[in-house]
Each structure stands twice: as C-alpha cells, then as structure tokens.
Amino acid sequence: MHPNPAFRSDDRALYAALIEETGIGMVFLTTPDGPRVAHVPLLLTDAGTLRFHLALGNALTRHLDGAQALAVVNGPDGYISARWYSDPDQVPTWNYLALEMEGPVRRMDRDGLHGLLEDVSNHHEARVAEGAPWTMDKMARIKRDRMMDMIVGFELTVEAWRPTIKLSQNKPAEERNRVIEGLKGEGKLALATLMEQFAK
C-alpha cells in the first residue's frame, strides 16, 4: 500500500461501493502450512463485517475460525505513462484502488451459511439483466443440503481499514487531465472515470 497520505481516504461509503462493485476479494492467513490465500465473493454488512464462504477442502478453511486475517479488494488499475505529462522530469507510475481489511474471523453456523448464500445470490441476481432471478429454493432440498455440506461460511469483523486510492491526486489538475485522456486512449475507461469523479 502506498504510504503517501494524499492517497488515503476515510470515506466508508467509498469502501462499501468498491466492495459491492468488485464483488470478489482475497483472504490471506498465515497457517501452520505457510501463507495461504483464497479468492472469495465478499459481502459487506451494515455492521462492518465481511461475509464469505470457502470450500470445505480449501487450505484456509480449517485455520480461519478464531484467526486474525487480512482481506483485500482491488479496484480498477492502470499504467500511467510519463509521456502523458507536460513536465519531462516525470517517471511512469501505476494508479489503482486497493482496500485492506483486517480483523478476527468466526465460522458461521449452518443457518448463517444459508443466509449468506441467499444474500450473495440475491445481490448478484438483481444485476442480471434478463430472466427471472435464480433462488436457492429452485434446487431440490437434498441436492442443496449436500452442496452446503461442502462449504463453510465465515465472517470477518473489520477492525482496521487500510485503503489506497492512488488517482494522481499529487499532480496538478492539468496533469491529471492529461493522464485521464491518456487512459481513455488506452481503453482504461473505468480508471479514467474514477479519476474524473474523484477530482470533483
């Protein structure tokens, strides 16, 4: 994470928007078998906890309950060419959004897992443009229960939020505009749009 305080933010609504838009993140833990990471869909609750599930056979599953873990979500990113600056005494860099969240993890009971799975599918099914939303009750109960036996739900209580929102805030407005145009020319529209929104 970049140490420049210009790239920090205390905007929890921005954190929530990044998690919601991205939908997936990484959970890291040092285990007796060494460092491990799992890529998981994440849901942020109003209470500030992250909920996710893992396969029973995942290398993290048996170690997470009661552990202090780190979750990371990454947003749009892109290479920033020094040629886009008017000042020749510049170097290339990388603009990006990243959010680290650290805290203790607890294992959910089966009712909690069921609720998590419903929330995840409802949240993302609402974004699918065509057709009726898929729901868990469309499955045969015996099949659904068998599949639930193969996964474990977890909840991470976020005690530390560590964001980096590096969008050329340390550059003058005219240089940021040149970077935005350069990104658009490279097809990096999501990052360019974020830079435009963040500059307001």
From TrEMBL:
It comes from Novosphingobium sediminis. This is Transcriptional regulator. The lineage of its organism: Bacteria, Pseudomonadati, Pseudomonadota, Alphaproteobacteria, Sphingomonadales. PANTHER family: PROTEASE SYNTHASE AND SPORULATION PROTEIN PAI 2. Gene3D superfamilies: Electron Transport, Fmn-binding Protein, Chain A. Pfam families: FMN_bind_2. It comes from the Bacteria.
